[in-house]
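Changelog entry: the DUF340 domain-containing protein record was regenerated in this release. Current contents:
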Amino acid sequence: MNNEISITEAPAEGRAIDLASHAVLLVVVCAIALVGNWVATKVTPLDALPGMACLYVMTMVGLVIAKYMPFYLPSVAWISLVAIIATIPGVPGAAFVSEAVSKINFLVMATPALAYAGLALTQQEFTIARKSGWKIVVVAICVMFGTYIGSVVIADLTLRITG
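Regenerated structure tokens:
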């Protein structure tokens, strides 16, 4: 009986991270995020550009690490690790990175991504909707209405309790 624990190692060349396409798409996302940040926080894109450049570089470094490491760890984990290390007090440049990134509102950056994720429909979902017919529309409206009313009740109770 073999009691050894082994880690499955995926070959680095087998990972499908296309760095060139990710780099281009990230530039587009960064530009959109700069405009969104400007609209929401009134921080000009020129003022927020160093912070966005830091985020871009940290993301690309994390993607490169994820592509070439001899073991698998999701790219979001590598990107997070790079960002954490880049902002640890005492690490050269950490103060600059922290100060530059502080001009970016991360909630503003998440809004378009979450909206896209909510609106992205696959062919399978369209097929299910066609088979379900009008009944699924009624259920969806009831779910949205119930979620909204539930949120209103919770917010109202919280405001009444806290004054």
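The radius of gyration is 22 Å.
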